[in-house]
Amino acid sequence: MATLIAPSNHSPIEDAQALRHAFKGWGADNKAIVAILGHRNVHQRQQIRKAYEELFEEDLIKRLESEISGDFERAVYRWMLEPADRDAVLINVAIRNGSKNYHVVAEIASVLSAEELLAVRRAYHNRYKRSIEEDVSANTTGHLRQLLVGLVSSFRYEGDEINAKLAQIEANVIHESVKEKKGNNEEEVIRILTTRSKTQLVATFNRYRDEHGISISKKLLDQTSDDFHKALHTAIRCINDHKKYYEKVLRNAIKKFGTDEDGLTRVIVTRAEKDLRDIKELYYKRNSVHLEDAVSKEISGDYKKFILTLLGKQD
Amino acid sequence: MATLIAPSNHSPIEDAQALRHAFKGWGADNKAIVAILGHRNVHQRQQIRKAYEELFEEDLIKRLESEISGDFERAVYRWMLEPADRDAVLINVAIRNGSKNYHVVAEIASVLSAEELLAVRRAYHNRYKRSIEEDVSANTTGHLRQLLVGLVSSFRYEGDEINAKLAQIEANVIHESVKEKKGNNEEEVIRILTTRSKTQLVATFNRYRDEHGISISKKLLDQTSDDFHKALHTAIRCINDHKKYYEKVLRNAIKKFGTDEDGLTRVIVTRAEKDLRDIKELYYKRNSVHLEDAVSKEISGDYKKFILTLLGKQD
C-alpha cells in the first residue's frame, strides 16, 4: 500500500498556475510547493509539468531547481521524475566517480521487475547517451563488475515454477562459497544470483536457511566489508524481501550520526506510491516507534515537511 | 534488400485450405507446400497459421512436422516461426548439451538491434520458462560465459555519437590483449565488446586497423581454436559488417565436406526477408559464382527447392 495522498480530480492548469505564483518574488513559497506536488501521483505530476511548459514556456523541473535548494531540492527533483528516469539518475549518481554507492545499483536492479528494469535501461540511454552496463562496467572490475553488470542486464523469467532439486544444489554452491571465503566459487554465486528467477532464488535461500539454521544474508553480514560483498548482500536481501530491506535502509539512515538524507529520500520518494505503508508498518514493528516520529527528530525545514507529506501525514 | 517473393494480396483461408489439401493421402504434396509458404512474408505466414488453426483445429506447424522430414522439415519449421521465436529456438539448439555452437549465440546477439534482442529474450521466456542468460551461463564457464552472457544481456545504446579518444584507448586495450595472448586483458576486451554501442565499436575496430595495418578479426583468426575465441571472432565480425559475415558462413557451409545444412538454413531463413539479396551479391563478388548455382550443386530434393525459392528463384 502507498502512503501518498492524492486527490482523484485535480486541474493541471490550476496547479501549474499555483506553482508559478509560488515562484514569484524573492524566495519561493515552499509550503505551496509541498502542498501541491506532495499530493499528486506520478501521472498528475507529469500532467502538471506539461501544463506548466505550455503555459509558461519553461521546464518546471529546471525552475524548481533554481527556486529551492539542498535536501529539499534533491527530494523534489527526484519526486518530479518519472520512476524509470529517476532510477536511471539514481544509478548514475551511485556509480559516478567519488560516490561509489554500488549497493544502490544492486538494490534498484534487484527490486525491479524485468520490464521495469528494462524501462530504466531505456531511460538511461535517453538521458546519458550510454548504456547502464557500459557505465557500470567502466567503473568497476573483477567480481564486483560481474555481479553488477549481471544484475543490471538481467531479464529474469517471472513464472512461478520452482525446481526444488536445483534449489538444493545451488544452496550448496552458495554455502561452499560463503564457507570457504576464498572466492573460488564466487563466479558461480554471481551466475545464480544474476540469472535465476526470483521465485527460484527465494526457494534456494529458504533451502539454505533450512539446512544451515541461518539466513544467507545474515551469514554474509560478516563479509560485507568490501564493495562486492556489500552489493551481494544487498541483492540477496532485495530479492528475498525488499520491504524488509527498505525498512533497514531507513533505520540505518536515521540512526546514522548526521542522518543519511540520500538514503532516506531515495526510499521514501521511490516507494511512496508503491508500498511505503507496508514499510512503515515493518518499521514500527521493528523499532516500536513510528517512522514519521523518528524522521521528525532527525531532519528539519521544508525537507522535513515534504518527506512527512510523502509519508502520508495529514496536513 | 530481401530475396523473398511474396504476393501483395493473398487469402489466408485459401492458403490454409490448399495446405490441408497438400497434406491429404500418403505423403504430402511438398511442391505445393514450397509454392505457398516459400512465397509468403512473416505477416502472411502468421495469418495462414491462424486461419489453419481456426478452420481445422490443429496447429499448422505441428502438422507440417508430421508431414515432412529431414532438412526440409527443419527449414520449413524455422521459416514458419516468428523471427524472435526462431532466434530463441536457434539459441537454445546452439547451447543444448552436445551441440555447443556457441558462436551462433554470439552471432544472433551481435547482429540484432537492442529491441530485437529483447524480443528474443521475451520469446525465450515464453517458450522455455527460463531466461537466455540462465541457460547460457549454466552451460559455460570463464571467459566464454562472460562474453556470451554479456552479449545476450546487452541493451546497447544506439545513437550515432563517436568518442574518438575512447576508440583509440580501447583499440589499444584490444591490441594489448591480442598481442600478449596471455589472457590477462580478456575481461577488458569482453567489457568493451559487450557494452559499447556498435557505432563506437566500429570506430574502435577502424582505429585498430589504421594503427596495425590488419583488421582485428583477421588478427584474431590465428587464435580461434577454442570456443571463447571463436565466439569473440564471430561477435566482432557481426558488429563490423554482418552481411560480410553471413557471406562467409554461407561460403563455409557450402564448401564444407558434406555441406553444413544447419548453417545454410539458418542464414537463408533468417535473412530472406531482410538483406539476403545484398548477401547474394557479396557472395557473387567474392566467389565469381552465383549463390543459387553453388547451393544447387550441394543440396537436393524438396529442401533444395525450398532454399532456392527463398533465395528468390523464379518458379
Please give a structural write-up.
By secondary structure, chain A is mostly helical. Chain A contains 19 helices and no strands. Chain A is globular and about 65 Å long. The mean pLDDT of chain A is 94. Chains A and B meet through helix 8, helix 9, helix 10 and helix 12 of A and helix 8, helix 9, helix 10 and helix 12 of B.
Write the topology of this structure.
2 copies of one chain form a homodimer.
Chain A: H1 12-22, H2 30-37, H3 42-56, H4 60-67, H5 70-80, H6 83-95, H7 102-111, H8 114-128, H9 132-138, H10 142-153, H11 164-180, H12 186-195, H13 198-212, H14 216-220, H15 227-255, H16 261-271, H17 276-287, H18 291-298, H19 301-310
Summarize the structure.
The structure is a homodimer of 315-residue chains. By secondary structure, chain A is mainly α.
The largest β sheet of chain A comes out as: none
Question: What's the order of the H and E elements of chain A?
Answer: HHHHHHHHHHHHHHHHHHH
Q: Choose one word for the global shape of chain A.
A: globular
Q: Mean pLDDT of chain A, as a whole number?
A: 94
CATH architecture of the domain at 12-68 in chain A: Orthogonal Bundle
How far apart the termini of chain A lie comes to: 20 Å
Q: What is the CA-atom radius of gyration of chain A, in angstroms?
A: 21 Å
The assembly state of the depicted protein chains is homodimer
Q: What is the number of helical segments of chain A per DSSP (H or I, 4+ residues)?
A: 19
How much strand of chain A? under 5%
**CATH fold call of the domain at 12-68 in chain A:** Annexin V, domain 1
Portion of residues in helices of chain A? over 70%
Give me the CATH superfamily of the domain at 12-68 in chain A. Annexin
Largest interface: A-B, 32 and 32 residues
Provide the CATH top-level class of the domain at 12-68 in chain A: Mainly Alpha
Number of DSSP-assigned strands of chain A: 0
Category from helices, strands and their pairing of chain A = mainly alpha
